[in-house]
Amino acid sequence: MGCGFCGAALPNIVATLVVDCVVKPVGRQLDYVRHFQDNVEKLREKKRELADARDRLLHKIEDAKNRLLLIENDVQNLQSRADETLSDMGTLEEEIQLNKRCLNWCPNCSWRYQLSKKAKKKIQDISKLLERFGRLGPVGYRDPTALPTIDFLCSKEFVVSESSKAAFKQIIEALKDENINMIGLWGMGGVGKTTLVHEVGSQAPKLNLFGKVVITTVSQKPNFERIQDQIAQYIGFDMKNEQGRRSEQELWLRLKNEPRILIILDDIWESINLKEKIGIPIGDDHKGCKVLLTTRRQQVCRAMDCQNVVKLDCLDDDEAWTLFEKKAGLNVSPNNDIKILAKQIIENFGGLPIAIVPLGSALKGKSYHEWQVAYRRLKDRRLTEIEDVNEENAYVCLEASFDYLKNMETKTCFLLCSLFPEDDEIYMEDLVGYAWGLELYKGMKSIKEVRSEVLASIETLKNSGLLLDCGERHIKMHDVVRQFALWIASSRKEISFGIVETLPMDESFKNYIAISFETNQTDELPK
């Protein structure tokens, strides 16, 4: 049967060779037949190389999409071409396997010639594709229309006061001055510096002062890589490449390409060399780049050579009362007795918005007796443990706000937030995990139920002014509120939380139910 099959195929191979030999040497045609098995094996090897290259490309594409990048057209075309080629390879493999039985019984020269020729052509096609993979550049780019803008960050709680209006005007005038490139805004914690610079950042582009506005938080323990990443995302620059992390010099060069850019550095505690530590061009390096910084310490403004220094003062008595009246709902309350008590309570605030907003929200809608209790607590409380006397009034008022939270679960959820690093954007799902692990909500049988409880607690805390929104499913704490929460957690026996620099190696912390420490400071947990 096999020989008859070969006999039937003989005219085909002769006809094929005759046609091809009109224009090509006979030896090359015979090579297809002789090297059939080698071509098939080489084709399979090239297929594996192409599949590996395609998979690596898919990983890069997935990573780029996770970083919200758009995929380059040539990358998409190369992926499609690789997919098509691999699909064609499957068809050719099936054809080889289908004819293999006949080839084993009788070396069908026609089939060997045709299949070997297809394999050789496919090897050449794959080799060209692999060359394109080798020349491939970055797979994605940032969508200019999707870059974050300062309008998204602008605070809805901007408190307009005489001090804030004066400070705002001074900053805007300084930004217009071509000879000023560094502006410092200073004032005590909780006075509203962050809110004010967000407002400046929102208005500056509308006044046609800058093409781009960038904002990032520095804090007491600066994470310069995080700061660079936050600056880079506003200008469509990626601090990472295939070789690793880009240098400060590369960010410096990229920022120099921005004709007019304002960089807001919030909450600076010590003098920072902006060029060496971050990569910000300033002064003669780039006249179009200006820096606006906020700090609690006036000496930081001097140390960083701010040409214009602005102070933000606390609210005066009338402004403090107006804000408290609004937050506590007293502007629509007919109860004069409550208003008299509120006037006495307001004396404890020291004009700090960070204290006024939470306590006003906590007392809104309360009875006269509840207002009396709040007044007695504020009057009798003396927080002598607090070193920074400027913030004592804020702590007193925040404690009253904390005590007015209805249940211990919400209070504990609030204190859990203080265990995250300063200025950290807290992912709500992390809180859910901690609450589940600590069995914070008794009687809950599933994470789904705990999640609902945690999200409800977060809403209560946000409505009380104790937590701030900062994007989808993320929250954060004002630094003064966080310090207060840490004080509460360490001073009250019924709530045993703490933050430590290094893990304790003894039993000194055995009464704590939760501690926080920097994970890169230790290799393993103690027994």
From TrEMBL:
Residue ranges annotated for the NB-ARC domain, each copy included: 167-329
Alphabetical keyword list: ATP-binding, Coiled coil, Leucine-rich repeat, Nucleotide-binding, Plant defense, Repeat, Signal
Coiled-coil stretches, from where to where? 33-95
Tell me the domain of life: Eukaryota
What would be one Pfam family of this protein? NB-ARC
**InterPro entries documented for this protein:** Apaf_helical, NB-ARC, P-loop_NTPase, Plant_NBS-LRR, WH-like_DNA-bd_sf
What SUPFAM superfamilies has UniProt attached to this entry? P-loop containing nucleoside triphosphate hydrolases
Keyword Transmembrane helix belongs to the record: no
Cleaved signal peptide residues? 1-16
Q: What is this protein called?
A: Disease resistance protein At4g27190-like
What gene makes this protein? LOC121227919
